[in-house]
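Box 4.2: Ligand-aware structure prediction
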Amino acid sequence: MANGICVFAENYNGNIEPVVAELVSAAHFIKKTTGEKIQAVVAARDCEQLAAQLEQSGVDEIYAVKTDRDCTFQDDALSQVLAEMIKRIDPASVLVPATPMGRSVFSRVAARLGCGLTADCTELLVDKREDGSFYIKQNKPSFGENVFVTIVTKEGCYPQMMTVRPGVYTPYEAAPDAEVKVEYFDDIVLPESKIEIVEALPASSDTDSILAAEVVVVGGRGAESEENFELLKRFAGKLEAAIGGTRPLADTGMIPFEHQIGQTGFTIRPRICISLGVSGAIQHTEGIKDTKLFVAVNEDENAPIFNVSDYGIIGDMKEVLQRYLEL
Ligand SMILES: Cc1cc2nc3c(=O)[nH]c(=O)nc-3n(C[C@H](O)[C@H](O)[C@H](O)COP(=O)(O)OP(=O)(O)OC[C@H]3O[C@@H](n4cnc5c(N)ncnc54)[C@H](O)[C@@H]3O)c2cc1C
């Protein structure tokens, strides 16, 4: 009988990726109801070093395969190893970061295992069937991000496999020196890959800057005019803040999608967030609810954004920013 919540320990350059700690949080949320063990799977040339990092991450069991070469980007070969590992571990669920690597490798793993793969979940909930078995409600935006759907893996089909969007869960803070079981599958060998890595270049996306920023200035439709957006950029520059926005700003291309905040965008946890010309729709405020200090500027005193802000300024953002910038 399938049992366990398995997390894919994505790694790069000898380090476990930070998103794995977020998935461990999601796994602990599931564990509270199902009581299952949390497992991590890792396959890499430097897997002893990675296993040592995972021992401090809050998982109960680590399953590892040491490969004879670096297999980063060799998704065809890596997916064969991971599929074999998951077959042996037989977990009830597998949580994968919704990153380019997670998506590419685990679509292949799912095909090998003949199970489904729900992509891009933003919320995982647990429910119980009449026979007492648990299942995961995999919530995610769908149909061009216009509706929120719940996907449930067919009864009796295991593992329930899903990718989870980075930034949704708060990274898990593990207790030090917890006892963790580590098992190596020495007989699983990395097969030949048809992919040859010619050159690796750092990603040009600056998503990280908004996820890691201490201060974020968020623009809404009220900042959509060229003049207002220019003021917003100068304001953000003065505060050395990252710029985020609501969906209308991403739709019009004023900000890249990677800077859209909300249910179908990214979740940010800055120290300070200042929002300008944002109405405060729930689909947006879900992405900023963990901000420590939240200031909102809106000309409409009844705007819902004031219900979630710590401080509010009722006024035209243009006037407010011009005064601040002393124009
Ligand atoms: C399934 C689904 C998922 C969604 N996901 C997201 C998401 O991830 N992120 C997201 O942001 N939205 C999302 N949305 C859209 C969301 O519902 C709202 O439509 C959107 O957040 C509104 O953006 P806004 O506040 O910029 O615009 P508006 O709602 O049009 O508000 C503009 C605000 O600016 C104020 N204003 C105008 N001019 C000025 C000025 N000069 N000075 C000060 N204030 C001014 C107005 O009073 C108004 O309150 C989603 C919707 C759906 C259905």
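In the box above, the bound molecule is flavin-adenine dinucleotide. The chain has two domains: 5-184, 207-324.
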